[in-house]
User: Which sequence fits this backbone?
């Protein structure tokens, strides 16, 4: 029962964190007259960069390589993810990855998260998590150049033992 709770806490926490990690403003409705973002604009924004979250982060590497780390605030359990990322022709950024954590007692499952991106009439980028209705302006200070989670990723892999 505890492990099941940890799984749901991890997944719920990761989804909540991913949904709000890049916000710079309060949640809003989709900007009037917004159009899908150019996929090349989204690729340029994330490729080779780290999206820093409150309790972890994700690295969007070349060749579609995706890595992420998360530390559960409630019990300090560590997890990491490996997978792929891509951008659709409608400006949606997605990752598909398997999350690993210590004492995982279930088969690996690929989890998918996506963020739709649009550009408003002023040329500003907006995003929304695929499971949410609120739109946000991505916060530039949440992105850092390079793989800023590498050391944490390596440490979490050692702790988890996978």
Assistant:
């Amino acid at each position: 029962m505890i492990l099941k709770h940890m799984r749901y806490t991890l997944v719920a926490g990761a989804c909540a964190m991913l949904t709000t990690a890049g916000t710079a403003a309060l949640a809003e409705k989709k900007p009037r007259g917004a159009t899908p973002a150019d996929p090349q604009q989204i690729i340029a924004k994330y490729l080779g960069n780290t999206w820093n979250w409150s309790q972890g982060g994700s690295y969007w590497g070349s060749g579609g390589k995706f890595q992420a780390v998360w530390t559960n605030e409630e019990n300090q359990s560590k997890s990491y993810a490996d997978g792929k990322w891509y951008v659709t022709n409608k400006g949606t950024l997605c990752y598909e990855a398997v999350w690993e954590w210590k004492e995982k007692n279930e088969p690996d499952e690929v989890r998918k998260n996506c963020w739709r991106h649009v550009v408003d009439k002023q040329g500003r980028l907006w995003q929304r998590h695929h499971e949410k209705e609120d739109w946000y302006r991505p916060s530039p200070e949440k992105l850092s150049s390079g793989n800023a989670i590498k050391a944490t990723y390596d440490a979490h892999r050692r702790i988890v033992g996978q």
Observations:
- The two ends are 22 Å apart (CA to CA).
- The CA atoms of residues 113 and 145 lie 22 Å apart.
